[in-house]
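Example S7 (structure tokens).
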């Protein structure tokens, strides 16, 4: 009798285990790739209160039904939001910072293939740009609470563009295009040759045909070729070598840098006391180029102006085979503002080393002199310190997290998978 009872208990346990396993398999047989999310803007100034209403629609494009329970969708939103339906099929909860959780409500039923359920959401701000929308959606099953599956099929439907309080609201690309389309076209020769616009710019002579230098002798251009030399005062050696590297990229030949001033086919970097700290004078004639400054910074900015005179197409080739004609001119320039800064926030939005170096090159081109490299914040720690490896091992990675012990939670649309920084 005891043996029979024991056998029954074992059989009952096995049946229960098989039943639970079957239910789990049924629940997770849904293919997450079949989830389609549509974000539709409904009202972009709700009741004139500076709020917006959007509609979140979940469509099942898979072959299996989406279960009524057992799953959650997480996403980021820089704006606070909440559902406004009386009996919503989904509920939304703010977890931390800009991380939100969407889950099926009691009214939600299994979503059959090709069916759609929606919920209306109110945001506490206007929709001005595309990143004002919720972003970074990912799915997590209850029976696999640490595994995130990014939702890739996301469609955004924007409202027609409209001005509110002087601001262009929604459809950012169309708004920008319409504004720029109103700009009148100007001839290429009337476009400023140096940017940012220098304090003084004077052409030495008349316009001339490229390369030929037709005109009076004083009006002829300087023909820049691989035979050019660089002459530099000793205090400008670093800038001279940097210019030489740029010309090597452009012309395909190493350029000689000498200390003795030359008078022909030369770029002379001259020290001239009395000029503003970051100011320079640039003189282009048929004999060559002269850049004068009191400091290395001034020479550097003069070189940037010289580079801006070169045609953009020339930098696209490995080396220029024909001389480049530089129009004769005299430029006198110095900055109007001592602080000319740019902020790059890699704590919130990580950028690669290659991109950071590109930004620095662009800053040099625009003659900016202060770089705010924002390395750390609540959403990420990017500065590696050998004695505190956990700062970057944990703080430099984002993804779905229950306790933030292995990495930071998803932020700014990074999604739930940790391969996004």
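Recovered sequence:
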């Amino acid at each position: 009798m005891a043996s029979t009872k024991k056998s029954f208990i074992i059989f009952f346990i096995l049946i229960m285990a098989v039943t639970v396993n079957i239910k789990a398999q049924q629940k997770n047989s849904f293919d997450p790739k079949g989830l389609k999310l549509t974000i539709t803007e409904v009202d972009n100034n709700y009741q004139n209160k500076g709020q917006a209403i959007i509609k979140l629609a979940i469509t099942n494009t898979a072959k299996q039904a989406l279960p009524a329970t057992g799953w959650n969708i997480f996403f980021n939103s820089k704006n606070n939001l909440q559902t406004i339906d009386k009996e919503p099929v989904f509920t939304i909860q703010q977890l931390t910072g800009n991380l939100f959780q969407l889950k099926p409500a009691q009214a939600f039923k299994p979503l059959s293939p090709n069916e759609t359920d929606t919920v209306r959401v109110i945001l506490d701000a206007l929709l001005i740009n595309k990143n004002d929308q919720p972003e970074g959606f990912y799915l997590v099953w209850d029976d696999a609470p640490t595994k995130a599956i990014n939702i890739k099929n996301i469609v955004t439907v924007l409202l027609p563009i409209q001005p509110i309080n002087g601001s262009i609201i929604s459809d950012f690309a169309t708004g920008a295009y319409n504004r720029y389309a109103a700009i009148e076209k100007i001839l290429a020769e009337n476009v400023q040759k140096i940017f940012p616009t220098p304090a003084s710019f004077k052409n030495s002579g008349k316009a001339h045909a490229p390369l030929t230098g037709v005109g009076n002798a004083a009006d002829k251009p300087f023909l820049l070729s691989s035979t050019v030399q660089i002459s530099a005062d000793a205090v400008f050696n670093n800038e001279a070598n940097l210019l030489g590297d740029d010309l090597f990229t452009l012309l395909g030949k190493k350029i000689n840098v000498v200390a003795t001033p030359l008078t022909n086919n030369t770029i002379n970097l001259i020290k001239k006391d009395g000029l503003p700290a970051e100011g320079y004078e640039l003189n282009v004639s048929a004999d060559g180029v002269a850049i004068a400054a009191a400091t290395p910074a001034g020479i550097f900015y003069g070189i940037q102006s010289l580079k801006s005179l070169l045609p953009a197409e020339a930098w696209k080739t490995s080396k220029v085979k024909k001389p480049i004609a530089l129009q004769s001119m005299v430029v006198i320039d110095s900055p109007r503002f001592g602080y000319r800064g740019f902020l790059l926030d890699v704590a919130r939005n990580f950028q690669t080393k290659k991109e950071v170096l590109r930004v620095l090159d662009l800053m040099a081109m625009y003659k900016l002199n202060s770089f705010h490299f924002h390395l750390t914040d609540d959403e990420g720690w990017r500065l590696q310190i050998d004695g505190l490896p956990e700062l970057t091992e944990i703080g430099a990675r984002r993804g779905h997290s229950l306790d933030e012990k292995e990495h930071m939670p998803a932020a700014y649309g990074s999604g739930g998978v940790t391969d996004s920084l």
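Notes on this example. Helices lie at 2-27, 172-181, 237-251, 296-308, 353-365, 390-395.
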